[in-house]
Amino acid sequence: MQVYSIPKSIKKDSKFTFCKGCDHGVAIKIIAEIIDELNLKENTIAISSSGCSVLLYNFLDVDCLEAPHGRACAVATGVKRAHRAKGQDKFVFTYQGDGDFASIGLGESMHSALRGENITAICINNTNYGMTGGQMGPTSTMGQLTTTSPLGRNKEYHGFPIKTAEQIALCEGTQFSARVALYDVKNILKAKKIIKKAFECQLKGGGFSFVEILSSCPTNWKLSPQDSHKKIEEELTKIYPLEIFKDTTND
Q1: CA separation, residue 67 to residues 18, 70, 108, 116, 120 (Å)
Q2: Contact at 8 Å (CB) between 72 and 104?
Q3: 1 DSSP 8-state letter
Q4: Which of 22, 89, 124, 128 has the fewest CB atoms below 10 angstroms from its CB?
Q5: Which residue, 66, 67, 63, is CA-closest to 91?
Q6: How far apart are CA 65 and CA 97, in angstroms?
Q7: Whole-angstrom distance, CA of residue 16 vs CA of residue 38
Q8: Which of 137, 130, 179, 133 is nearest to 161 (CA)?
Q9: Rounded to whole angstroms, how far apart are CA atoms 72 and 93?
C-alpha cells in the first residue's frame, strides 16, 4: 500500500487557508514535489505577488519574497541577476495569478520573456481576481459574470480575454511556454511533468520558461468544487487549450 507523504519542501505546520475546492493547494504541492525531485530546496528563491498567490510563503519551505502587485517577474529578474553577479546561480521562479501576471504586470511579464530572463513563471488562471472580490480579470471569458461585469463580459465594451501562454510563446526570449489544468488525476500528473520541464529549462539556462495553470475558483464562480472542475474540463479547455506552445530546449 502506498503511503501518502508530504514533500520536504512543504512546511509541516501548513494549514490550508484557501477557499474550499481551490486548486492552489494542488499546484503548490506539485511544485514542492518537483523542488524535492530536482534537489533545489536550498537553492530556490520564490517570488509571489498580490492576490491568492501572496500566501505562498505559508506553504513552501524555501526562501520567498513578496513583490508589489504585478511586479513578480521584475523582482525575479533583479534577484536572479544580483545573485549571478556574485557567482551564485539561484533557481528563481514566480507564482502569480492571471490578473497579476497578465494585466497589472503584463509589461513586466512580457518584457522578462522578451529579454529571455532565465527565470520560470507560474501563472494560476482562475479567470477572475479571486482574492479581492471576484472582479473581471484579463482572462475572464466572453459572457462571464463577475462583480465588475454583472451582465457578462462583452467584446464591444471589455474586449477579448488574453491567451497568456500563446502570447508568451511569441516572445523570442521564451524557451518554454505551456498550459495545463488540474481538474482530474490524469491532468494533475501531466501538469507535474510539464512544470518540471519548465523548471529544468531554467537549469539549462536557455531563457524564460512559463506555465499557465487553469484553476478552479468555486467561491467566485458560485459553483461546487465538482462543478468548477467540470467547467474547466467542458468550457475553459475549449477556450484555453492544454498544450505546449513553445519548447526550444531541443533546438
Answers
A1: 20, 8, 12, 20, 15
A2: no
A3: -
A4: 89
A5: 63
A6: 16
A7: 25
A8: 137
A9: 9
**Consecutive sets of 10 residues in the chain, 251 residues long: mean pLDDT of each?**
70 84 94 97 95 90 94 98 94 97 96 98 96 93 96 96 98 98 97 98 95 97 96 98 94 66
d(CA 119, CA 210): 9
- Are the C-beta atoms of 164 and 245 separated by less than 8 Å? no
* pLDDT value for 249: 87
Q: How far apart are CA 229 and CA 181, in angstroms?
A: 9
Q: Choose the CATH number for 24-247 among 3.40.50.300, 3.40.50.970, 3.40.30.10, 1.10.10.10.
A: 3.40.50.970
Strand extents, DSSP E, the chain: 44-48, 63-66, 91-97, 120-125, 128-129, 135-136, 174-181, 208-214, 244-247
Per-residue pLDDT at 251: 66
C-beta of residue 215 within 8 angstroms of C-beta of residue 199: no
Q: Which of 81, 70, 78, 82 is nearest to 108 (CA)?
A: 70
In 3D space, the residue among 212, 36, 39 whose CA is nearest the CA of residue 122 turns out to be: 212
| CA count, 13 A, side-chain hemisphere, 94 | 39
Residue 178 pairs with which residues in a beta bridge?
211, 244
Domain ranges of the chain: 24-247
Cα separation, 211 vs 195, in Å, equals 6
pTM score of the predicted model = 0.95
Phi first, then psi: give them for residue 176, nearest 5 degrees: -155, 130
Predicted pLDDT at 4? 56
